[in-house]
Amino acid sequence: MAYSEKVIDHYERPRNVGSFGTTKDVKERKDVGVGIVGAPECGDVMQLQIKVDPKTGKIEDAKFKTFGCGSAIASSSLATEWLKGKTLEEGLGIKNTHLVEELSLPPVKIHCSVLAEDAIRTAITDYQKKNGLPVSEEAHHHH
Amino acid sequence: MAQNVKTPIYLDNAATTRCDPRVVEAMLPYFTEEYGNPGSRNHRFGWASEAAVDTAREQIAALIGAQPKEIVFTSGSTEGNNLAIKGVAGMYAKAGTGQTARGHIITAMHEHKATLDPCKRLQKEGFDVTYLEPGADGIITAEMVRKAMREDTILVTIMWANNELGTINEVPEIGAVCREKSVIFHTDATQWVGKMPTDVERDNIDLMTFSGHKMYGPKGVGGIYVRRRRPRVRLVAQIEGGGQERGIRSGTLNVTGIVGLGKAAELCKQEMDSDQQRLLALRNRLETGLSEAMEHVHVNGHRERRLPNITNISFGFVEGEGLMMAIKDICCSSGSACTSASLEPSYVLKSLGIGDDLAHSSLRLSMGRWTTEAEIEFAIEKITWAVNHLRDLSPLYDMYKEGIDINAIEWQNH
User: Fold this and answer.
1) How far is B359 from chain A (nearest CA, A)?
2) Are residues B374 and B260 in the same domain?
3) Is residue B1, in this structure, part of any structural domain at all?
4) A40 and B337 in contact by Cβ < 8 A?
5) Residue B395 phi, psi (nearest 5)
6) Are residues B27 and B111 in the same domain?
7) Number of domains in chain B
8) Are both B261 and B167 inside the same structural domain?
9) Which residue, among B318, B362, B387, B399, would best test binding to A if mutated, counting the most A CBs under 10 Å from its CB?
10) CB-CB: which of B338, B343, B402 is closest to A22?
């Protein structure tokens, strides 16, 4: 199966690789929301972290690390790009279908985009819970 | 990077091999000059083709220690396995169609699908099938087979060498158990024949499947060895028609393919010893090179009882398909099934009790007649670079370095 140019681009030059500290650090940091989704035995684990500016409520930075195929890496890389500068509500507006479209993912790779959407939602919810904010309606939604 | 390497390099010889140019040369006249049908008994075109097929039969018989009459040509190993398994079941069934308790068949969980699927069909048709679970080393032993034997066992079908691992089952010993119990023994020797010494008499084999394109011959042709004496094995034909191949396999013979298969067999016999030694040295270098360059490199399957040309290696914390994308200059296979809709990793690796995470992290690298030392050095450098790169991207590797037990985490499964 051939990959689309955009998948290859994100795979070869992944954006925003990294984290805002160790697992313990980010758990304690109130300005960081963490989403870890997937499972090693399924062949995909995505870790997405957002750093929110408490004054503006906007996501000022986002980082990822992913264990998975090229499409999973590309989906999470693209998600971090899109999250930067967005409010939490806007971030929740990113849907897997948008990722599928942008990366031209074939049907067998749609689960990669679903996982990325899950990671976004989990990270935002984590931030909201840490900061005593109401958890967004959409964050409860489950596909 | 290693010098003098032309990319992409091919390390997927267990999937298929390059057809040897000497094989192609032998085949060519049979396309355009000697294009007769060996079934045409009354003119010289037919005779010439028939003679070529007879020569090929002799070449193959010589490679495996059989009589030429015991070779039946097929389209390849999928057909061969279907013919052997369904053909025996049909001939030796203990009860008629539509009934139950028609007979017992022993096979293994990590056989090729071309064996498993015919067995599954036979189960639906009233046969019982035992799927032996290999040990953690991937080996099926004679003892495992002996324990599974029943009064109504009619067939044991165990592959000689596993296609994903290269592990070698106890074939002569399993054959001996079958002899003792008067049960027919079939072995899928697709990965074995042409690479390793084979003697159907010494190795106690009744039926054996092999394929041209795994031994530097053409695709679309293969064969099955069918024992003719002590005991004489009979098969119900699965493809009916003109009665070619003594009625066991109808259809005009694939003369060009058969000529190629014969030539490939002849070359394999001549070059087996040198190929074997060279491939073993390359494989050992590859495994040592990768293990020395990185931590968490696991070779899957028995360390010694393996074909010299296949290695199956897991790289912890890295997903196989992602890894293959990073080493796109190296053509190989992965045990990760991220490409398939099921998301299930290789059932072969799972049958060994290898964790799903390591099964997802595996590569199968298989060398062949033209693999060079320089290519192996290139592969070591490239794979090492890619694994390190992907570990930098891997949340699991971070967790491991932080001392978090990945297996203790409650993952949300999809």
Assistant:
1) 8
2) no
3) no
4) no
5) -65, -30
6) yes
7) 2
8) yes
9) B399
10) B402
Chain B hits for A67, Cβ within 8 Å: 317-319, 322, 393-397
Taking only the tens place, the pLDDT of each residue in A14-43 is: 999 999 999 999 999 999 999 999 988 888
B339, B393, B406 member nearest A108 (Cβ) = B339
Query: A39 and B411: CB-CB below 8 Å?
Result: yes
Question: Pick from B350, B358, B269, B377: which is nearest to B317 by CA?
Answer: B358
Distance set, CA B47 to CA A97, B35, B71 (Å): 64, 11, 19
pLDDT at residue A1 greater than cutoff 80: no
With respect to residue B4, please indicate whether it lies within any of the assigned structural domains: no
A96 SS3 class = helix
pLDDT in tens, A32-89: 999 999 988 888 999 999 999 999 999 999 999 999 999 999 999 999 999 999 999 9
pTM of this prediction?
A: 0.92
Give yes or no: residues B208 and B235 share one domain: yes
One domain, residues B184 and B137: yes
Comparing CB atoms, the residue among B325, B343, B355 nearest residue A42 is B343
Min Cα distance A132 → chain B (Å) is: 24
Whether residue B331 lies in the annotated active site: no
The answer to the question of residue B238 being in a domain is: yes
Domain boundary among B250, B268, B286: B268
- CATH number of the domain where residue B219 is located: 3.40.640.10
Distance from CA of B334 to the nearest CA of A (A): 11
Q: What is the pLDDT of residue A42?
A: 83
Domain that holds residue B103: 21-268
List Cα–Cα distances, A11 to A44, A84, B125, B288, in angstroms: 15, 19, 48, 29
Asked whether residue B411 is domain-assigned, the answer is no
Sheet-wide strand order for B297-299: B297-299, B310-315, B362-366, B333-334
Closest A-chain CA to B343: A42
Question: What's the maximum distance between 2 C-alpha atoms anywhere in chain B?
Answer: 80
Query: Is the same domain home to B236 and B353?
Result: no
- pLDDT tens digits along A101-138: 999 999 889 999 999 999 999 999 999 999 999 887 65
Check whether B337 has a pLDDT greater than 80: no
- pLDDT for A143 equals 45
**Residues B293, B263 share a domain:** no
Omega before B8 within 30 of 0, i.e. cis: yes
Shared domain for B204 and B86, answered yes or no, is: yes
Tell me which residue of B131, B181, B180, B201 sits closest to B159, measured CA to CA: B131
Mutation site, A17, A69, A121, A142, interface B, largest B CB count within 10 A: A69
Position B414 pLDDT exceeds 80:
no
Please, which residues bridge with residue B311 across strands?
B365
pLDDT attached to residue B407: 80
What average pLDDT does range B337-359 have in this prediction?
76
Instruction: Specify the CATH number for the domain of residue B401.
Output: 3.90.1150.10
Which of B268, B290, B317 marks a domain boundary? B268
